[in-house]
Amino acid sequence: MGMTGSIVLAADDPVALASFYGALLEVEPQPGLSASHWRVL
Fold first, then answer.
1. How far apart are CA 34 and CA 4, in angstroms?
2. Which of 3, 40, 35 is nearest to 24 (CA)?
3. pLDDT tens across 1-41, in order?
4. Any alpha helices (H) in the chain, and if so which ranges?
5. How far is residue 6's CA from residue 8's CA, in Å, rounded to a whole number?
6. Distance from chain centroid for Cα 1
7. What pTM value is reported for the model?
8. Cα 31 from Cα 41, distance rounded (Å)
């Protein structure tokens, strides 16, 4: 059984932040619950 967790970051430009971490982790950011909420799995 593995451990899971998450980190929440606040940003003035959440799309840019999600894009940065998506590129860093080589994954596609996914929209979250609202326009200001993004997920990078």
1. 23
2. 40
3. 687 888 899 999 999 999 999 999 999 999 999 988 999 98
4. 14-25
5. 7
6. 24
7. 0.78
8. 11
